[in-house]
Amino acid sequence: MSRVSTRVTLVVHAETAATRSAAFPVDEPPTRRGTAAAAAARDHVPRAGELRHAPDRACAGTCAALGLDTVPDPALRGWDAGRWAGRDLDAVAAAEPGALRAWLDDPAAAPHGGESLQELIRRTATWLSARPGGHTLAVCGPVVARAAVVHVIGAPPSGFWRVDAGPLTVTDLRGGPDRWTVRAASRPLSP
């Protein structure tokens, strides 16, 4: 009995004001510069049978600029940063240093009142395990791409802080629910 090959390509949305300033994300569209960069990369998007995007405005705007007709998928939503949404890391560090340290050190901590790192990785793993055979392309936030890599390589949650996924980068995964491999991580969308 042969297994159906599965491929998942995660494309990180274009630059937003929050990604540009290292702030906790809010639901915002890509910047003009981000939209232009996505439009310029349109010819370099891998073709896939199933097209998805996180329901965030940055992802929907990136899909439009890339010319993709995708379906929103709530499981790909960005990380819920609770009351820290929209604040930059330095401001949170100055105002709540203990809470920020707990968030960085304990994957189950959610001092901001949102989603913990552990919950983000679990949600991403559940989404990956539900992928059918064939090729799925999904436009998502950087945290989903990072969580996918951590899950696939079996790294501890602390490995999340060592994975980078910038705007308009591609993470390519191959395999299936119990046998994923990382083919490429954080590769620029354009050549």
TrEMBL record:
InterPro entries: His_Pase_superF_clade-1 (IPR013078), His_PPase_superfam (IPR029033). It comes from the Bacteria. This is Broad specificity phosphatase PhoE. It comes from Pseudonocardia ammonioxydans.
